């Protein structure tokens, strides 16, 4: 299993899925999002990934960081499943994605298993093409 980490987040690849988990409550600001994207790029090693992005350790995510992630954070990704600890956060993201039309498929979930199943479905469809 390949993994990289720093003081606030850990990434690992298992079963063809890229996972991340915050190691402590984290404020995602411009500095931290740049570090997070650089670390995810490092583990991706130039290959696109199916990412299960666990948001449960995020205390806040400021607008500057969200804007930066929208521009620079979608490289090396086929799809991203965001796992929240709130049905409201999941609903908000999914509604916003209907309106926004992201570059890559992005969907919110409350259960990690549902997120992984969705990523595996996308992966399977891509492999059949």
Name the poorly predicted regions.
none
CATH evolutionary superfamily: STAS domain
CATH topology: Transcription Regulator spoIIAA
| Dominant shape | globular
The Cα radius of gyration reads 14 Å
Percent in helix: 40-55%
Order of neighbouring strands in the sheet with most strands: 1-2-3-5-7-8
Q: Could you say which structural class the secondary elements and strand pairing correspond to?
A: alpha/beta
What would your notes on this structure say?
The chain is of the alpha/beta class. 43% of the residues lie in helices and 31% in strands. It has one domain (2-128): 2-Layer Sandwich (Transcription Regulator spoIIAA), CATH 3.30.750. It has helices spanning 30-44, 63-72, 87-100, 112-128, and strands at 2-5, 9-14, 17-22, 26-28, 49-54, 58-61, 77-83, 106-109. It has a six-stranded mixed β-sheet with strand order 1-2-3-5-7-8, sandwiched between helices. β2 and β3 (17-22) form a beta hairpin. α1 runs parallel beside α2. The longest helix has 17 residues, at 112-128. It starts with a strand and ends with a helix. InterPro entries: DUF7793. This is DUF7793 domain-containing protein.
């Amino acid at each position: 299993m390949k993994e990289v980490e720093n003081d606030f987040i850990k990434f690992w690849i298992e079963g063809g899925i890229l996972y991340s988990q915050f190691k402590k409550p984290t404020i995602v600001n411009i500095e931290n999002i740049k570090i997070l994207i650089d670390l995810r790029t490092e583990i991706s090693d130039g290959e696109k990934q199916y990412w299960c992005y666990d948001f449960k350790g995020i205390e806040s995510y400021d607008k500057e960081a969200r804007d930066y992630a929208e521009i620079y954070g979608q490289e090396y990704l086929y799809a991203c499943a965001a796992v929240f600890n709130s049905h409201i956060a999941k609903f908000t993201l999914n509604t916003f994605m209907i309106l926004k039309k992201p570059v890559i498929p992005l969907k919110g979930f409350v259960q990690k298993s549902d997120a992984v199943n969705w990523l595996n479905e996308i992966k399977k469809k891509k492999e059949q093409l």
